[in-house]
């Protein structure tokens, strides 16, 4: 069997058998379709024949009903009763193709004028006259007297002599001879002969003068009274007949026993010339023989039904070809599968060896347990960490006393808390479980353990558990030391972190200690909480500009604690990034330089007033002069002296004098710009440095300060005044020359009565 399946000829044998089978099925199907087609064609032909016969019988029944109607009371027949009879029998709706139902009495030639006059007078048709197609003076006349429906076209036939047209004459003559309804040959309907040669036929029914029908032909002709007739439009009749009964078979009707073109009465499909199916039958009815020719190309609903056998054969061939190809592919696939299986078996063996090698060489300890918690396998790292051989480990439970475990707090590990048992009981992975293991030599090793349950193929139960553990003894030691260092840093280093909007996210204990705020009060707030009001906003603008560019910022900042104590810090602020190098905030490391700043402040300020001392004023004076000379900007100074200050000391004592100096120092500092500098020049004299200020602006400031001093009511000293001298930088000026001119202006103000402002006299001094 295997040899047959692997034979290379199997696909071709199967394809050949499939071809033979397809041809056989197609041939049988073609025979069946031909047989069914002939049966359906014959059935359709018989149906059409029966429909025609049935419809003609309906017309015959109508004309016989009219004959009975006239025989009941022939003397009472009138045009109105004729019309009512036609309406009552619905001749227009119920009889297909009916164009007219009429009655024509027999009129002998010698009675023609009398008959015409009678119709004119009795019927009211003044212009009535018998019309004939072929005029003859010797034959009897059958002029149409009653006609329904009396339409415009039918009115043209009123008075027409039926015997004047040979076909009608022969038919009505036959009806008297047969004493029964008789169908005429093909005629052109009288109603339309003027404008249209409409093909049709008529049915005639004889009326005799006697109640009983005469027996001999001569007696029948001699006792003729008149004739009833129905004019039928052949095309309309048969088209309506086809509409009511859908058929795929067309037909032709010929008048007579031969299908001659001149005898064609009706053709349902003139365009169908070369019909695939054809058949003839004769229909004998009421003295007339019709020949029916049936024709069709298809008799099934789907025109391509005769192609079904070939389509079926095509699909069968495709199917068997595909199946043969599939066998071929399966053979090749099977051969390849065997080759691949052999190759994969080799690779699997190699992979198993590699995995086992990797398993043994892993730095992590690895154990494999069954679903009961018994150790099935372990690697070398696990043996080294536990200081046990493989035989000491494999076959024991993971909670064996050979490697007793403890929690981080030193207590003995509970059996149910072992990661392996928790994974088995909960069916969930156990990650990062830290436990200490007392080894064989008594040393303690700390491991971080993970337990991963491994499920069966349908995941309904745990098949085994994979345990991995890492030696974190050194890591724990380093972590403890790091925590100690971090604690030291947190306690002794001023550190704060913010997000990108400057909102504090973290602070050290030292930061809380120096600021006086708790962590809860600081986190979520801005550093504005500790900002000193004396710090210029330009410094913070410069800081943020630098940080937003990703550049660390270094500088000194003055802060104010929660208790209102001022302190200075030296700050290093750097951007902070996440793993994807996205900016997430800023970290600042601060150094308390309050003592340093106090020493600096003592060296540059006047101890009594807190203003700059003369040494600092000299330094600032030199700085502003260098700026003026480099950038050609304006620069002015104001020198002021408290009037009669010696009298205050002599009268109230030096303590009141010191208090007055402090009060005036505060007043001056409060009313100058941030970039201006004021200091104690000596005794009761003060010097104000005004960068980028011209003489007129300096005079305005001096006058403002003079009024403020004059208006102030100083404690103990009462109202006091001061005199002011103003000087402005000129080319080649230095500190000495400018102060000299300001001093001269000051003393001129005193000479002029004190409590006034005087401007330098630069032009006079230079001359």
Automatic annotation (TrEMBL):
Q: What class of enzyme is it?
A: transferase
The chain positions of domain PAC read: 431-484, 553-605
Task: Identify the CDD domains for this entry.
Answer: GGDEF (cd01949), PAS (cd00130)
* Species whose genome carries this gene: Sulfurospirillum diekertiae
Q: What is its EC number?
A: 2.7.7.65
All copies of the GGDEF domain together span: 633-762
Record-linked NCBIfam families: GGDEF, sensory_box
The family database entries (InterPro entries) matched by this protein are listed as: CHASE_dom, CHASE_sf, DGC-Regulatory_Protein, GGDEF_dom, Nucleotide_cyclase, PAC, PAS, PAS-assoc_C
| A GO MF label | diguanylate cyclase activity
Offer one example of a GO biological process linked to this entry.
signal transduction
Q: Is the Coiled coil keyword given for this protein?
A: no
Domain of life according to the entry: Bacteria
Domain PAS spans what residues? 351-396, 478-550
Please identify the protein, giving its name as recorded: Diguanylate cyclase YdaM
Identify the keywords attached in UniProt to this record, alphabetized.
Membrane, Nucleotidyltransferase, Transferase, Transmembrane, Transmembrane helix
